[in-house]
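Handout, page 2. Input:
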Amino acid sequence: MIRLDRLGKSNGATVHEYTERDIILYHLGIGARAEDLDFVYEGVNGGLKVCPTYAVVPMLEPLMKLLPQFNIPFRSVLHGEQTIFLERPIPPRGTFLTTAEAPYVYDKGKAAVLVVETKTTDQVGKPLFRTRASLFCQGLGGFGGDPGPKTRLFEIPSGRKPDFESTQDTLDTQAVLYRLSGDPNPLHVDPIAASFAGFPRPILHGLCTFGFVGRAVLREICGNRVDLIGEFGVRFAAPVYPGEAITTRGWDMGEGMHFLRAACGDREVLSNAYVRIKEV
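Output:
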């Protein structure tokens, strides 16, 4: 039974220290190549850039600390949705302070959805970014709670062609690389763990796919300007297997809003996705 008395209670600040090496490793984990010099070389003129999707890395530890406080076993959790909100560009090295709390839990019958929000600042308390994750907790519904609001749907006009399309190959070692940025779930590397979860082989981290699509948005919409992304949100629709190609498509809806979809062949892997570009 989920402990509803923990709703809205912060777990205190978690410290996240990192250097350029951690940033480069993260970028390699989300598909950066040698030619992406701004993202893989700390000596580049103007300094190393940080992909805004790095915001999900310091989120993980405080999020994981919350689950046992709610009596939620890790094996029951599927990542349903993820959104990041950027206040300013992430520096290439430093120390973050991240607090997490779960303001809502929704009763979906056979499952519960736990909403976890984090806030990250620098050492002096200046805001950097926020995140929101929706976690689908199997077998923990049916407690008579609020079923939650209807999800806002980002619907693409019928028949409209995308304004950009970008295909990126993943490596067969992509999940092995990505897990070094702080997500050691064996589902992504151990064939036995993947089999127990119902998959024929290890799957790519959803947040790795999130990073791949974030890189496509940076390149195709922002000209690799990391200061332009204000919000980026997705729904995880299906897994990606290491070695598959991810195709990202985007539609410019005006006023800085772009709707996104990502697929591996005909299989949609990220749905109901969007990015909001800041005014400059």
